[in-house]
Amino acid sequence: MSKQIPIPAAAAAAGMTTLVFEDDFDSMDTIDIDATHEPGYKWYPDAYGCRLTRDYITQQDSYIHMGGPQPKAYGLVTYNNPVDTGFTVTCGCYMEARIRAGMPTGEYGGIPAFWTFPLASMKGEAWTEGGELDVVELFITKNKDGEDQKYFAGTLHHHYRSTDADGKLVCEYTSNTVNSCGFRDQFPFVDDDWHTYAVLWEKGRIAWYLDGVLTHAAEYTADALPEYYYRDDPTPLPRVHEVYPHVTKPERIGAHTIFDTDEGVVFLTSRETYPMDVDWVRIWRK
Known about the structure:
The chain is mainly β.
């Protein structure tokens, strides 16, 4: 690699000094924008039946812009699902992306996002269990004074399908974000500047960083869930498992240990009313 890329302090401290994935988006050459499904690209526009188009992704000034008419919001992925090749991540890495996202137009809610989702789930092979790691998801909502407020979340989700004794599907999709490290408005902002979002993903612990500053961390074991925070309140909420009447296994305490064995696909996601620019993505390992 011709250019020298500095190792983030948190990655270096954890011994993760080998750059295993990097894209600075100096061109569109790393994106299979025409969905050829040929190997060798870093990003593919197909995920769960949604194919992004050239109208949705443009390259300019050494970054990509993601935004435009699009019926679904899955975005670019690092895995070429139709031919079963591509890049995946596992526990024991440091992931970061430099992103710029202003205020959305005409719609509240979430996305843009930089996140991972299990490869097996993406391929439709193992929807029984799956861990979603949101390095960052940006939101827009109203604050207590009724003003528009942008904030971000770094979150763990545990998804699963549940069946009864006869194999009949009981619960198609459930997320236990109540038990994850949720939304902390510790660094509120409304600016349109570039920010670097990152996670240090180690066994039993995931830590989130904004511009190199630790914002929060989630620790979990086989018998203990991560603490859950909500918005700008720094006090952890009780570690209680949410109960859905249609879920057959509400006893999944410590389920976040699934992150220790997950093989994940990396996503860059935006939506029509909330576009984002991405300067680069970098992933480090030991």
